[in-house]
Design brief:
Two copies of one chain form a homodimer.
Chain A (H helix, E strand, L loop, with lengths): L6 E7 L23 H13 L4 E5 L13 H5 L13 H6 L5 E7 L5 H14 L4 E6 L4 H6 L8 H21 L6 E4 L4 E3 L7 E4 L4 E4 L12 E4 L4 H10 L2 E4 L4 H17 L8 E10 L3 H14 L2 H12 L18 H10 L8 H8 L6 E5 L1 H15 L3 E4 L6 H16 L12 H5 L31
Chain lengths: 465, 465
Amino acid sequence: MVQKQILLNAFSMNCVGHINHGLWTHPDDRSTRYVDLDYWTDLAKLLERGKFDGLFLADVLGAYDIYGGSLDIILKEAVQLPINDPLLVVPAMAAVTKHLGFGVTSNVMYEPPFLFARRMSTLDHLTKGRVAWNIVTGYLDSAARAMGLARQVAHDERYDLAEEYLELVYKLWEGSWADDAVVRDREGRVFARPDRIRKIAHAGKHFQLDSVHLSEPSPQRTPVLFQAGSSSRGQDFAATHAECVFISNQSPAGARDIVATLRDRVAHAGRRREDVKVFMGITVVVAPTDAEARDKYEEYRRYASPQAGLAHFASATGIDFSRFAPDEPITHVRNEAINSAVDAITRRETGWTVSRLLDQLALGGRYATVVGSPSTVADALQGWIRDTDLDGFNLTRTVTPQSFADFIDLVVPELQDRGAYKTEYAEGTLREKLFPGTGARLPDTHAAARQRYPHEATAGSPRAE
Amino acid sequence: MVQKQILLNAFSMNCVGHINHGLWTHPDDRSTRYVDLDYWTDLAKLLERGKFDGLFLADVLGAYDIYGGSLDIILKEAVQLPINDPLLVVPAMAAVTKHLGFGVTSNVMYEPPFLFARRMSTLDHLTKGRVAWNIVTGYLDSAARAMGLARQVAHDERYDLAEEYLELVYKLWEGSWADDAVVRDREGRVFARPDRIRKIAHAGKHFQLDSVHLSEPSPQRTPVLFQAGSSSRGQDFAATHAECVFISNQSPAGARDIVATLRDRVAHAGRRREDVKVFMGITVVVAPTDAEARDKYEEYRRYASPQAGLAHFASATGIDFSRFAPDEPITHVRNEAINSAVDAITRRETGWTVSRLLDQLALGGRYATVVGSPSTVADALQGWIRDTDLDGFNLTRTVTPQSFADFIDLVVPELQDRGAYKTEYAEGTLREKLFPGTGARLPDTHAAARQRYPHEATAGSPRAE
């Protein structure tokens, strides 16, 4: 039997501090150069050298203002603020690579779907089908206020809106232009056939639209769909829409449960269990030997900012940890969002305090963390894959780009030697690379397929749907 | 006295047919490759070789559905449909150039200002201050319907909204972060100083916002501001906000009147008359001799589509020309928008018919057109500059990129020999290149300056404005 190949995304963000906070102060760290194009083009070339499947770019539209009710530590440690637009770094990276995929995060609450659909079609054209969309609904009141709302829309209503948003962008991407609409016939003077293009008329609860899609069909039409919802409603959404799901957990048992539940829901939604690839966030510190790796971890940790990690976690949970004494048991009304955030970094059953959180969040703590030699790291990664039914990892950055370079120089060859990681990219779009043999377009079992341009020829004007 | 240097933008759009329609059918035309990154990076390198000041990218968010009430000719001839996002081609072009500026069009009616402000800050960072924004308010009901409205907002109300939009983005770009907010102090662990960053609280008629700007200050902060409004209200808006204005006219006398009126309004707004650079749209067909240029013009014209030009013009004016017989006098209730569109292509006083429009719109007709040898073209361009007080031109494409290459190979050296065109780029941002000696930021006399972060030190939390 062919060994399962580990999928791998680099996890980053168009900002200084992303997950492992404070490391921008390390002398070798280059994350403060996120405003420079060559920071991104160099990163893309590095990742393609390491045969990474993709670069996954997170995003957030608000500021983390929960901790102490201020932005003091957030700004001092550049905790996802300042933060620039993720889509705009992709074209320059695409120009210097051939295979690397690009996952970009965009929020359905705030980006107008008609304009967003054109942006993604444009990116899919420019990258020749290497783009993925991480669908988020947001969770910050500060983002809602930035967008002119008093507070954010309630959790389940956000998913109602997201469902309608997806229906609408599927209609634009899949249903407005027939596959044979664009003929580029110079001699016949027909660039596109009007009888093979139709307006999309959508009148829903949250959105209205009456237009053709502005972009001609791109290689993948709908970008590869990522999602990371951990709530029950979020998992249902993922089961219907997601092709890749991003999870976080500290224990193989916990991760295994999440993956199994998710695949059950995927099957329930009429799709194959393997139609969703599951990626887990992970932090890796690697060096030639275990001892050197531990030293490197301790050295990095000296530059880390646990306080910044706590301020970030405060906004993830909505809990202002500044109101607790260091060893005071944190009691707080739990809800699903808080529980999943807490599950991700620790065991819910054990008590937690600010002291314990600071220790946990100093370096790597938001995700599973592996420190060791190439062999130790490869053992751990293969163990996760074997024990949990995961498909791959979103690899966080620590000292950047050094931590990605270390992984590529040390871990990738080890995994390749073990037959657990590709030695060459497959040809084709990102979707074809992730799901070999299925083609550039979404499978017929996916919800988007219902919005496709009808197979039968249509007649008449493109003004009518 | 130093001779006035002619400023020059290439005028294009992320689509096939832009201004001179039908030329995509010419065997040498590459515009159908607009979906490929190297189409854009090659163009950028070409334009920088020609020392163009910028590439000016138009945009439109709706389809031209007035002519015959259908999209038939629009789709067959690819008249600005399909059309992809203009911002996303800029980063790849910036990565292969050092000096070329990039003007992108974005519509204040439909792009949320908080998100748009971050996009432009991101572009200004990535290009190191080479980005300009062409502010448009739109004019198509089809765009309004695409965005979920029954019809577009009325003309003057669009400008009211635009005024508030500008106030808001100025606050974000100029007023949220002090110049000395970002210190990047690794040893002191201060990336940004919280006491030098403030939230913007805006509660207006059209927009509300309560947030810090997400991006740290970029080289220009506010991008160079382009505007093309030709109505009286549009000219007032330009007089207040624009640094560069794009006009179109067929006659030196007409252009001179527009420029003089505009500069009067600029002075009335408390700015210097020269604080606005005026560019006129122009089409040039050049060859080594006048006779060869005329032959080339006639050859291009054989591939042109006057019908496509007329369908485009129908949406510009709102008049369905399909309802007129070829030689029937076109009588139509004129309004300001129609008059300015008509002025741009012909003399309003003379009668016009579909036959005359088709002849006029076949090639170059939407803008002044010059056909001739390098010497003839240079004479014409210098004549326009001398007679009208224009500062430069937006050069349309005909057969692309050939027409830009011809201009660069033939006209640019001629203008340089005459001392009328730069032989080297100036250093600095786009604003510093266009307005030597004034710095990267807007002058104090500009409306945006009122929104600047206060000079006096502020104390306290960034939560308060």
